[in-house]
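G.,

No rush on this.
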Amino acid sequence: MAASHRVVSAQTSESMRYLMRANATHGSAGLANIPGYYVGGKTGTADKIFHGHYSQDKVFTTFMAATPIDKPKYLYMVLYDEPQGLPEDGGYHTAAWNAGRVTGKLIERVEPLLGIAPVQEFPTQPFPIIAKLGFGFDADKVSKE
């Protein structure tokens, strides 16, 4: 195996993982926050360009999640080209409502197939570098306040 080298600092890596976890518990990645799996994720919605102009109703959506987010082992990526909003989702066609939801369903189905059982308790200090800086104590608070 080829030698590897770090391309981002440990602090940058942990900061990004903390933000992804907070997005799952407080933000747009909530539909992928599957109980028992320590998920972090990020949504992405981009207007498509037609003839040099941004479309008003056609988008690409992406969602990326990693588990367990404190020590990532698995990465999930879902991409949609021109998704349609569903009535039960208020007609929204953004990533949180389609790619995020599907990623959550993938995690819920795939992790048990990999032999990973849901856990009852998450790590007590999953982001130690962030904690030393006085942050990171709210990433697992499951609410959108």
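When you get to it, here's the other one too:
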Amino acid sequence: MKLISILTPCFNEEGNVENVYRQVNEVFKTLPEYNYEHIFIDNASTDKTVDILKKIAKKDKNVKIIVNVRQLRTYPLTILRFSAM
């Protein structure tokens, strides 16, 4: 089965991360021929973004979190990775 990786950068997005997660999850429910991982990359948020992401990741094995402990410079990033399982 093919794997699709979704990368979502975030910084102080406590009001948005659950909605983004739900939308991506709904799309993949319609694509049973694909496995996916949704990787949220937090850039040292100072709100509850990381706490919300941890709760989501605890319930959904497809969700992974990378938390930067200090704010890093941002660059435009587009990565698509497809691999056969």
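The helical segments are 17-29, 49-59. The chain has a mean pLDDT of 88.

Enjoy the weekend,
O.
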